């Protein structure tokens, strides 16, 4: 009985989210974002530049919010239909909660790293295994980056619009390309050489046993979970890349539509402030930024995002309106998903019970079951 309790605790340790810790992360992320925005306004004020809102148009803000909501709906539909690749059916509400939870955790974790585990968590509560949820989210993460790359190519060769970055922003983009290439190499290396992953698992177990002797867990349970997760993960890659590639095309198309809708929010805010900038140039200016934001180590990239957007959009707004643009853009793309996604995610982590452990126990050795 005691071993069963330990095994249960071990299996679900990766699934636990502590509301108190999440609330602290929310506060830190908001404080950094607000502090940076106030800093931008103070610099503008210090230079004696007055904020010009004489041509403010509220209806364009409404259009921006509509574009944002449409982008979320497209993202939700993408997840809703993609789950069918595993012959699993989730509701659109569950799919929308998945993407909103991902947005929320991305806004409060360093380099937006919390979005992927959060989406896996919600999908695992919706009927997919952890391996299936992991393969879906990881493959979609790859397609997320590929769709941004496709947009850059389209804007350069089809619309003849340069996507120009200079200085540190260009260096960050190159760094991202190198880092992402390494991650992709390691991912596919483990997919084709799973025994390396299993050896690493054994090394990790021995390391914990040697240096953290008070840690109590079942070695068999750890190995069983890793094997099940990785088997489902590999099967998911096989489904998406070999058996049902139409879901790859579906995700790419949805991501491109999502980004166009999402980037249109920035254009609407410019129009609301009376800045008449070409639509395609505004869209193209935002595409490479979303590669760079992933390298900003603060929660939700707060601070770095505001400064980066200020430097890029200064040429569209002028010094009189750039501070207000950053504030409105951050409210729409940061605070709105932060609070709405947080509401959805907190309801999930506080209102659902853990699934049964029977399928894990059935894979354990007989001596483990009888202990």
TrEMBL record:
Residues that span the membrane, as ranges? 26-48, 60-81, 102-123, 135-160, 172-192, 247-270, 290-314, 326-349
Record GO cellular component, one term: plasma membrane
Grouped into one coarse class, the protein's main location is membrane
The protein depicted here goes by the name: Phosphatidylglycerol lysyltransferase
A Pfam family assignment: LPG_synthase_TM
Which keywords fit this entry according to its UniProt record?
A: Cell membrane, Membrane, Transmembrane, Transmembrane helix
Describe its membrane topology: Multi-pass membrane protein
Q: Where in the cell is it found?
A: Cell membrane
């Amino acid at each position: 009985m005691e071993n069963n309790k330990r095994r249960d605790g071990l299996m679900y340790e990766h699934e636990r989210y502590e509301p108190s810790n999440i609330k602290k992360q929310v506060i830190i992320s908001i404080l950094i974002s607000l502090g940076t925005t106030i800093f931008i306004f103070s610099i503008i004020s210090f230079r004696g530049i007055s904020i010009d809102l004489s041509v403010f148009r509220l209806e364009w803000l409404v259009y921006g919010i509509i574009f944002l909501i449409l982008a979320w709906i497209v993202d939700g539909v993408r997840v809703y239909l993609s789950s069918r690749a595993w012959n699993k059916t989730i509701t659109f509400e569950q799919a929308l909660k998945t993407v909103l939870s991902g947005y929320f955790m991305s806004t409060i974790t360093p380099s937006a790293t919390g979005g992927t585990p959060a989406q896996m968590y919600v999908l695992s509560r919706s009927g997919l295994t952890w391996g299936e949820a992991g393969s879906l989210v990881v493959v979609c993460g790859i397609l997320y980056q590929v769709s941004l790359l496709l947009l850059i190519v389209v804007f350069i060769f089809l619309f003849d619009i340069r996507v120009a970055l200079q200085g540190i922003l260009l260096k960050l983009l190159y760094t991202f390309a190198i880092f992402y290439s390494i991650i992709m190499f390691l991912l596919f290396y483990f997919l084709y050489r799973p025994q390396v992953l299993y050896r690493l698992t054994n090394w990790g177990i021995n390391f914990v046993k040697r240096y953290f002797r008070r840690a109590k867990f079942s070695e068999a349970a750890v190995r069983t979970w890793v094997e099940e997760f990785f088997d489902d993960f590999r099967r998911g890659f096989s489904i998406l890349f070999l058996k049902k590639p139409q879901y790859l095309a579906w995700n790419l198309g949805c991501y491109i539509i999502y980004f166009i809708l999402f980037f249109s929010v920035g254009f609407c805010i410019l129009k609301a402030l009376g800045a008449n900038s070409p639509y395609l140039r505004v869209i193209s200016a935002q595409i490479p930024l979303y590669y760079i934001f992933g390298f900003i180590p603060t929660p939700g990239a707060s601070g770095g995002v505001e400064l980066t957007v200020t430097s890029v959009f200064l040429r569209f707004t002028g010094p009189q309106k750039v501070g207000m643009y950053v504030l409105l853009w951050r409210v729409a793309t940061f605070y709105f998903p932060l609070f709405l996604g947080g509401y959805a995610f907190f309801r999930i982590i506080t209102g659902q019970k853990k699934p049964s452990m029977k399928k894990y126990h059935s894979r354990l050795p007989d001596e483990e079951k009888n202990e």
